[in-house]
Amino acid sequence: MTTPFDDETAPRRPGLFARLRSSFFTGIVVIAPVGLTIWLLWTVMGWIDGVVLPLVPQTFRPEQYIGINLRGVGLIIFLLFTIIVGWIAKGIIGRSLIGFAESLVDRMPVVRSIYSGIKQISETVFAQSERSFETACLIQYPRRGIWAIGFVSTTAKGEISGRAETGGKLLSIFVPTTPNPTSGFLLFFPEEDVIILDMSVEDAAKLVISAGLVYPNAKDPTQPPELVET
């Protein structure tokens, strides 16, 4: 029974099932990233152990002395081996051996194609210094009046720069896709048409991945502009 003093517009408190469901999904949001990360690392460690440990003599395996097969030992051996190989490759003897081996690979038709493709992918993913993006930028793409975030990679050189009908520098711009920024388009823009942003490359990548939902705090458009004291 209701009275004239009852507020019929007051929001109803969610039921027990609704609260449990809300708590369940909140727990999933918290647990899923942690659980998937641990599972992925554990799986990768097991896969590396399965590949590396059979190549290690029995006398060097820890389970021979402690009686327990420790997961991750193969990963540690692989990291140490990779570091040693990289250290040798930086020396004169290492570079000479690599050059001689690559010259042999270049004479093998099928192996040459496979090796060159894997080498280019490895250098793109793992190489640092000159191959990292310099700054984030804003360009008009795919037409004027529509703006897109891009990353400045290098200044165009060689035939690309020579044949382009521009009077100044030509910049290589990588325009990523959302939500997967590893795919995108390589475009060449005149330097005067590229607006360099103050935000870092990491902040710009977060903006692209989140489809515009995550802005850098210092440049959040939803916040009022800071007043400059005079």
Automatic annotation (TrEMBL):
<keyword id="KW-0812">Transmembrane</keyword>
<dbReference type="InterPro" id="IPR007462">
    <property type="entry name" value="COV1-like"/>
</dbReference>
<keyword id="KW-1133">Transmembrane helix</keyword>
<keyword id="KW-0472">Membrane</keyword>
<dbReference type="Pfam" id="PF04367">
    <property type="entry name" value="DUF502"/>
</dbReference>
<feature type="transmembrane region" description="Helical">
    <location>
        <begin position="68"/>
        <end position="89"/>
    </location>
</feature>
<protein>
    <recommendedName>
        <fullName>DUF502 domain-containing protein</fullName>
    </recommendedName>
</protein>
<feature type="transmembrane region" description="Helical">
    <location>
        <begin position="22"/>
        <end position="48"/>
    </location>
</feature>
